[in-house]
Amino acid sequence: MKHSDSKTRFFYVFILLLTTYTGNAQQPTWENGIACIIYTHCSSCHNSNSIAPFPLMSYRDALENIVGIQEDVNNGKMPPYPPDRSYQHYQDERYLSDSEKLAINQWVRKGAPSGDLSKALTPPVFDSKSEITNPDFTASIPVFTVPEITKDLYRCFVISNPFTEAHYISEIEVIPGNRSIVHHVQIYQDTSMIPVNLDSADILPGYDNFGGIGSQAAEHLTGWTPSTGALVFPENMGILINPGSRIIVQIHYPVWAAGKVDSTRVNFKYLVSNRKTRILKVQKVLSTEKNLVNGPLVIPANKVKVFYEQYQLPVNENISCLGVASHAHLVCVSMKIFAVKPNGDTVLLLDIKNWDFHWQGGYMFKKMILLPGGSTLYGEAVYDNTTNNPDNPNNPPKKVKRGASSYDEMMGFYLVTTDSKRGDENLVFDTTTRLATYNNCGFVIRAGALVATSITDNAKNIENDIGKTVSIYPNPVHDKLHLAFKSAEAAKVLVYNSNGQLVYQALAKQGSNQFYLQFLPSGFYFIKVLTSKTNTILKFVKQ
Known about the structure:
This protein has about 550 residues and is of the alpha+beta class. The chain has helices spanning about 5-20, 35-40, 60-65, 65-75, 100-110, 195-200, 445-450, 450-465; strands at about 135-140, 145, 155-160, 165-175, 185-190, 205-210, 220-225, 230, 235-240, 245-255, 260, 265-270, 280-285, 300, 305-310, 320-325, 330-340, 345-350, 360-370, 375-385, 400, 410-420, 470-475, 480-485, 490-495, 500-510, 510-515, 525-530, 535-540. The longest helix is centred in the N-terminal third of the chain and has 16 residues, at about 5-20.
């Protein structure tokens, strides 16, 4: 290909990458597409009865917060969904598709057109009504007024179980009494007197405890975040509630909740036990207490450390897994768990590359995952005890050790399991590809209007043709981007943001080059490497 042809092709592809097709395809407006996206993915938290700092319940709301919406969408911050979906898939995944992200960006660039508001979707309604009809038991906390606090409060409430016989939970649902102050909820059962004694020692209802409920006998049942609905287990499966156990409800209240009142409750539905009943267990399969390989869990000040946990299932213990969860505190920045079967096959379970204590949760698999006896579970967690970690509770950093307080750390991994039966490998719990849209609204903007296919395909074509002369790492990048360049000719390096704006330029020489990009906001970028003979486009993420 002649140089002029290569240059023409580059500019054609680059225009596809940074603009949209303006032919007969329908363009995004609030009426056409954007309201559907916002109401489906954002409004469950962004409403006047929930925890988010501003509502997104109307075109006007979106217009007033348009800059923040675009920024958080592009950097992957919203909607919050920590697991890496390329590692494993789960039920009810909350994420924006590429076409939805493109639609929001195009809508912003076009000046946020409203379309015909009289034809726009009716906003959803969020209240405290129960999804579980006729619950068998409702655990209600005492009416609680959040006291004056200087940091976030983790309050545990002890609720007696009125039943004298064992029951199996088939459905469980958390209903916050005040959605504007309840950040997240964790539910446990416990048979010890520790929670009772801690509650009795506090003059207010409940007691404070960060990271757990203060009892080693506690069994985790489920968690709740603002976008979570009722948890319904498969037919004839349930979690055993022991007679005489107590339900412990731990609620996270943000610091600005002081003076506000809450009355959160938890609904339980039990299944009728019979010979077909399969008992589910929430097992802490990896922990710092029992499974740490390179302990003790100590992170010196101004250090980044990686810790590993390992546990081999007994040879005669086959388990079937329905879900997974992990737990750590504020110095942790990533968590991963996987298993290796006796035949050497690797089973990917959970990878959270950007751990956020405030958005931890449990994730139910789309289909049953079998782990035969003799399988080995591996856990990995990275802890950043430096000033680069914005969640570090100490400034300047101090040595952090294992413990239950906010200044300590933990490393735990949980599996929802049941004893394996023949045919479990064929059990599928969720056949959908993603979370259902609000009110079955349709995202009617055609992919061609947003060039979703063109972006992917054309970028791959260019990389395949001439990208072998250029490579970049790491990707995502935090501050320093390395660029390896094979050509003997110097190249011009241009970095564009997702809106097509030139944000950085430099020269690259043959060999290794380093570019400091710590000043760039988080988001998606395109890097163009230009010589007299080649034009290369690569994509990277700035964290």
